[in-house]
Protein: Probable protein-translocating porin PorT (TC 1.B.44.1.1)
Amino acid sequence: MQNANIRYLFHLLRNALIGILLLLAAPKANAQQTNLNMLDHDAKPYYFGITLAANQSYFKLEHSPAFLATDSIMIAEPMKTMGFNLGLLANARLTEHFDLRFNPQLVFASKNLYYRDTYPKPQDTEKKIESILLSFPVQIKFKSDRIGNMRVYTIGGLKYDYDLSSNARLRRADDLVKIRKGDYGYELGAGFEFYFESFIFSPEFKISNGFGNVHVKDPNLRYSNVVDKLQSRMIVFSIHLEG
Structure:
């Protein structure tokens, strides 16, 4: 299942890269006669857009001392799953090559955990930890000079995530793994901007990782007791449509 998710994500990336290469390789009779689209766009102090994205998310897991002390749970490890993002984009021009970008998103993700039990009977258990995140990333964007109707850019910045479906306050059976509502982290990525007559098409690939430990420790919860730390990890392929 994990390998299938990885293949799917890289299938999206591969198709986007193929499209980019085809656009770059498109024959031009005379480079000087190429029509440059949206010439006034680069001088805009700000502009807006929308974001559609696919994500692969998982936890970086560190075991607690109780994991080594117990013989009822032999394996506890993270699983990688697919999700999607919907967002808005606001871009402010700082200099010719630097922009400030705010890209709030609604993120649907699942960061599941896999356990192998030996008690009360041998079995495999998957704990589904589904998240609906409000993500607020602020990024610095460094962009290259324009090459015809295309340019390359990189991004780096910080984010704050708020989990609308957090179960941190629930009190249920001992099979619960509690997750905090808030998390913060960093984002790094790169992309391309393709200028069309009335909009900009921007495929982008980035990593979006959390700094904090989102696990709410509770020694009374069986599946939580063997986990010390959970940190969010996400790989995102985005399409930005900008005006």
The CA atoms of residues 61 and 231 lie 7 Å apart.
